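ok new one. same drill as before - structure tokens go in, u give me an amino acid for every spot. 461 of them this time. try not to just spam alanines like last time pls lmao
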């Protein structure tokens, strides 16, 4: 496992240790702010910082023109690359999240969101790196964009890709490839929004591996049939059960799906100019008998990874299913850290704040899934002795036994989740991200009280 992923309460200092903002005081301020936000993930800047002077210093930090959000993220990118070196292969999950600030009337630099001119906000595009099983290792790319009106679809297609909003997908792809260690295989994973020919072509040019959920039933280059027409003729390779997590609009359920796969040659759209045909493999996951009134599962996955047998197809499906991690990370940012509630008056200031809480959110995501991937590991890879002692007291309501050994990672995560309202039963054997972030906040609040009592010589830690 990536042993340098999360160490102890000095984690923030270590994660931002290589920061170079041009001034040692700014470097220290960044580490201090990261620690404050880590301990107070759902609070405003004033509430998260220790006192009035700290709050004013935080606002001065975000208003400083000498550095930008990418300068803040650069040491985290380096740490992510270091963690990647401990893995033979990783997934780079690309996606965008809309941040709404319609009611934040004073904020400058916003664009239109949601297809209505009255709705204002920003679009954050990220590349989240995970292990093949889904443990978060960190970010390798982040770009916060002000959306512009795209005009009519027919006209928009004729615009060069460099002038389109969708260039963010190519930018993220390029940055991940540039920052990734050569010793680790990277597989880029994206949903249907990345299914445009320029992305596939760019990945091929960079010799980058990808898995994209198809959005178009393209005509093929070497015959008159479409992708789905070719798949229809293929025999069923196997049948699998796909667990669908609840997402606010649907209940969690298990879908029984058929799997088919084929090798195809797709051709570029006419508007792309002289781009070459692309040889890809396509894996189809389809639910033929969904419950009444519920849309069935149908994933058409395009990849340049070799799919010669059923085992290869199942690997592609497993990798794609990890894409849900970035949706959970978005949930931490919006519901856990409440990034849309922050009161900063310009996009540039918000970008700097958002870069810090993005790193904090990755840590919480890691805690959730590392406990599943490495259940027997010691919890001291992310909790100090004082923290897991406090966790014992909060969940057991008694003093820790003398010479007590640290919790396992799995038990520590479950105890944190209990503080957030988790109740273990047969249907939810592993805690989800919501109860983890709630429990984490409760634990950090308890640590603040404990440290205050210790400072007053009223408690020995």
């Amino acid at each position: 496992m990536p042993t340098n992923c999360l160490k102890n309460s000095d984690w923030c200092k270590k994660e931002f240790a290589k920061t170079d903002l041009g001034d040692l005081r700014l470097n220290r301020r960044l580490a201090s702010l990261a620690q404050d936000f880590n301990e107070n993930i759902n609070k405003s800047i004033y509430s998260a910082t220790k006192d009035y002077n700290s709050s004013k210093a935080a606002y001065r930090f975000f208003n400083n023109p000498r550095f930008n959000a990418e300068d803040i993220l650069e040491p985290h990118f380096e740490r992510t690359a270091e963690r990647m070196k401990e893995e033979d292969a990783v997934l780079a999950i690309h996606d965008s999240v809309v941040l709404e600030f319609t009611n934040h009337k004073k904020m400058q630099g916003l664009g239109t969101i949601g297809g209505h001119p009255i709705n204002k906000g920003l679009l954050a595009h990220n590349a989240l790196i995970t292990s093949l099983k889904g443990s978060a290792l960190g970010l390798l790319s982040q770009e916060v964009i002000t959306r512009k009106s795209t005009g009519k679809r027919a006209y928009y297609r004729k615009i060069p890709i460099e002038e389109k909003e969708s260039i963010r997908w190519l930018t993220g792809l390029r940055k991940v490839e540039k920052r990734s260690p050569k010793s680790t295989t990277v597989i880029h994973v994206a949903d249907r929004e990345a299914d445009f020919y320029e992305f596939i072509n760019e990945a091929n040019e960079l010799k980058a591996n990808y898995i994209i959920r198809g959005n178009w039933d393209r005509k093929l280059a070497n015959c008159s049939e479409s992708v789905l027409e070719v798949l229809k003729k293929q025999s069923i390779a196997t049948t699998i059960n796909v667990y669908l997590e609840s997402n606010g609009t649907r209940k969690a359920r298990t879908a029984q799906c058929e799997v088919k796969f084929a090798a195809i040659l797709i051709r570029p759209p006419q508007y792309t100019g002289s781009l070459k045909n692309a040889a890809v493999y396509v894996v189809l996951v389809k639910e033929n008998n969904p419950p009444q009134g519920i849309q069935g599962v149908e994933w058409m996955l395009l990849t340049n990874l070799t799919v010669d047998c059923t085992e290869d197809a199942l690997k592609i499906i497993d990798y794609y299913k990890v894409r849900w991690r970035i949706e959970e990370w978005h949930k931490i940012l919006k519901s856990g850290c409440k990034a849309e509630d922050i009161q900063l008056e310009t996009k540039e200031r918000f970008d700097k704040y958002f870069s810090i809480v993005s790193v904090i959110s990755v840590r919480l995501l890691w805690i959730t899934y590392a406990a599943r991937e490495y259940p027997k590991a010691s919890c001291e890879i992310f909790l100090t002795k004082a923290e897991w002692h406090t966790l014992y007291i909060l969940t057991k309501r008694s003093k820790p036994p003398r010479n007590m050994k640290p919790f396992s990672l799995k038990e520590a995560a479950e105890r944190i989740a209990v503080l957030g309202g988790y109740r273990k039963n047969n249907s939810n054997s592993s805690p989800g991200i919501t109860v983890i972030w709630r429990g984490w906040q409760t634990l950090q609040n308890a640590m603040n009280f404990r440290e205050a009592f210790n400072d007053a010589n009223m408690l020995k830690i």
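Confidence is low (pLDDT under 50) at residues 3-9. and btw The first strand starts at residue 89 and ends at 100.
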